[in-house]
Amino acid sequence: MRKTRKAAAVLTAFAMAAVSAVPAMADEIKDLYDYELQAREIETWNILYSQQATDLQVLTNLYDGLLESDEYGKLAPAVAESWETEDNGITWTFHLRKGVKWVDQNGNEKGEVTAQDFLTGLEWVLNFHKNDATNTSMPMEMIVGAEDYYNMTSELDADAGLALTAESPEFADTVGIKAIDDYTLQYTCVSEKPYFDTVATYNCLYPISQAMIDEIGIDGFKAATPENIWYNGAYTCTEYIQQNTKTLTKNPLYWDTEAKLFDSVTVKMVESVDTAYQLYTTGELDHVDLSESNLTTIYNNESDPLHDQLVEKRPTKFSYQFHFNYDKHNDDQSEDTNWNTAIANEAFRKCWYYGLDLGSYYKRTNAINPYKCYNNAYTMQGLVYLSDGTEYTSLVQEKLGLPAYDGETMTRLDSEKFEEYKAQAMEELTAAGVTFPVHARYFIAGGNQTALDSANVLKQAFSDSFGDDFIVLDIDSYVSSLSKEVRDPRRQSFVINGWGADYGDPQNYLGQETNDGDNAYYMVAYGHAVDNESEDLKALYDEFTELVNKANAITDDLDARYEAYADAEAFLIEHALTLPSNFDIAWELTHINDYNKQNAMFGIQNQKYKNWETSTDAYTAEDYAGFQETWNAGSAE
């Protein structure tokens, strides 16, 4: 039996000396029990269609692409065993391993994965009539002829477009992808893309067998089910009960015969983390994230048998931001002139930057170390590094004149600057006809008590930070679809949303905010700054876009590229065009060593149930201190 430690040991766990990675006498888990919230049910089993983390966390276990990552976030072979570029990223060649099999739901062999399957997958993604314009942005921006092919198919009638395949001359003679032979795949980019190999971890470049499409039909693949798809990943889905369970079973023909896999993984759908906590305590789950109330209850009671098992999670790959809506509409679709005028005013936005104290909001995620969730940049920490080892977002902070993270405060808060900008904003906006307080409308899912509790904490933070004479947060709800009920009709003042990179370059973050293309996700779907009447606002976005494009044009010197992106990112934040919010760093009880999972800050690999170290005994803070020390030593090599 382990010795009971004082509560302070939890706070200082990561500074403790390393101990044995696996508790003495503990066995590894053979059949894993995981969970997901019912609000995050999978929406599609079509790997080429999905852009949602809720889908891809499942689908990454069923399909393998060219590359994956290791526990340090470095690229690792998958279907491709090696790859190279000889012209600084214009032409990329991937050499596929032999013997990778397609199997059905029950693990029966259906065929071999070849280079042609990657052509079939890309044709599907780029065919307007097959994929509904999903996952097209990266191929269209990067691969020769991809945009031309997409535009061509969009002009065809449905029957003609659906009849095309990767072997059709319209695709084969247009798009820069070739199967040199069955095991050699080559992409040609529109310009030097030194990061293109990181795109190979994202599902827009995943393979699909034409034989499968022929077997189940185009409509069958559009409406893919676990029963009809072919798999080439570590697991197949052998049972799916919507809003109840998913059962993943080890693929008996999986190519990576050295991989450590579970015999099965059961994902239980639960209505809340409190429900998951109850299942964990009865031994029905192998880990659980802790709500604020459960965490504080266990943490404050040293005699609680779970006290020593509290461990702080690693950050997820998502960087969360306040994304403003610059063209807000009322419920009747008339323009919300009051909000739109206010948010276009830079002094008003800077009040949010310098004045909004989110400490109480961070406690909803991390009640013990809330300010570890504090985020000061747009790009996620750890995405890229300069050649001297400098982490990219530390360069952004330096350009913003901010001190390094101290884990105890929001270093950007400045009460004097807030009061100065508040006075300026109220004077300028009153003259422009704005009435105070300005009401900011914030939406949550109806019936989600956890989201409502967090929203009420945020509402109080607004009141405490801004004063009720200046900005008031109004909480509203939607029934089932944020996009259809809120985002598309532009009813929100802002959303707090996280972005996890699809590939390893700052362009994948900053390119979402530019005003010069349809692929800028946040500008097009949420921000709409181009539709605001303020010329000053538009001029800021013009300058920001120019800075991003300037950085993107630098391909022969990555240090210079990242320096230029840091200039653009600092500009975005300095003018408070978006507001950095938080990281997701929660606490958990777990039988899983998070430090040996795949851990890239891009791609879809991190929830792959592969090579996980586990224990039938729950890990402790002391164990996790050892895991971190071991990981730090390995990452420094």
- Low-confidence regions: 1-23
Compute the CA-based radius of gyration.
25 Å
**What structural category do the secondary elements indicate?**
alpha+beta
Question: Which sheet architecture does the biggest sheet show?
Answer: 4 strands, mixed
Shape: globular
Multimer state: single chain
Query: What's the number of extended β-strand segments?
Result: 20
Which strand order does the major sheet show? Answer: 1-12-11-10
- The end-to-end distance, rounded to whole angstroms, is 35 Å
Tell me what you see in this structure.
This protein is of the alpha+beta class. It is built from 25 helices and 20 strands. Helix content is 34%, strand content 16%. The strands form seven sheets. The chain has a four-stranded mixed beta sheet with strand order 1-12-11-10. A hairpin with a 5-residue loop joins strand 6 (101-103) and strand 7 (109-112). Helix 17 (392-400) crosses helix 24. The longest helix is centred in the last third of the chain and has 18 residues, at 449-466. It is globular and about 70 Å long. It starts with 7 loop residues before the first helix and ends with a helix.
